[in-house]
């Protein structure tokens, strides 16, 4: 079991602007309103080392918005332990983690729009994150999502 899986069992994520995959790969991220996705994926890092240095540097997360993907799982967005934190995630049908992105200064994500495999998560402060739900590292060409 990977470090992120262990944290997710308690609905916790590391307090770090980062993208985590269930397979244990983690990437730093940065909010960037000029990027089509609203953020930039940065180099990978070792989550095990981060948690070894400070195992308590985690935030409990709670969902505020969800989109049911039926047999493909669930998209979930919400808040962390502190008012400025927000997260977006894709889960399996069993609510196990596929991937999650945590932001320390986004505010909670409370709205999700889905078009095909592209989702836009919107926070209470107006931050918008647009991702390919199969791999959030995939570049998004346009942030426009057709009305459904």
What is the CA-based Rg, rounded?
14 Å
Total discrete domains: 1
State the shape: globular
Helicity level, as a percent range? Answer: under 10%
The string of secondary-structure elements, in order, is HEEEEHEEEEEEEE
Total E-strand runs: 12
Instruction: Classify the beta-strand content into a percent band.
Output: over 45%
Main sheet characteristics: 7 strands, antiparallel
> Which class do the helix and strand fractions yield?
mainly beta
- Count of helical segments? 2
Low-confidence stretches: 143-148
How would you describe the oligomerization state of the chains in this entry?
single chain
Mean pLDDT: 94
What is the CA-CA span between the terminal residues?
Answer: 38 Å
How do the strands of the widest beta sheet line up side by side? 4-3-2-9-8-7-6
């Amino acid at each position: 079991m990977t470090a992120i899986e262990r944290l997710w069992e308690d609905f916790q994520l590391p307090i770090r602007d980062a993208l985590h995959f269930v397979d244990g790969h983690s990437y730093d991220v940065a909010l960037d309103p000029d990027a089509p996705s609203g953020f930039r994926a940065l180099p990978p890092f070792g989550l095990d080392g981060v948690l070894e240095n400070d195992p308590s540097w985690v935030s409990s997360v709670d969902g505020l918005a969800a989109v049911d993907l039926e047999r493909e799982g669930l998209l979930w967005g919400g808040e962390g332990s502190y008012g400025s934190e927000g997260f977006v995630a894709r889960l399996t049908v069993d609510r196990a983690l596929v991937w999650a992105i945590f932001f320390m200064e986004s505010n909670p994500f409370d709205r999700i729009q889905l078009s095909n495999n592209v989702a836009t998560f919107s926070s209470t402060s107006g931050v918008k994150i647009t991702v390919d739900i199969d791999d959030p590292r995939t570049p998004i060409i346009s942030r426009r999502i057709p009305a459904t």
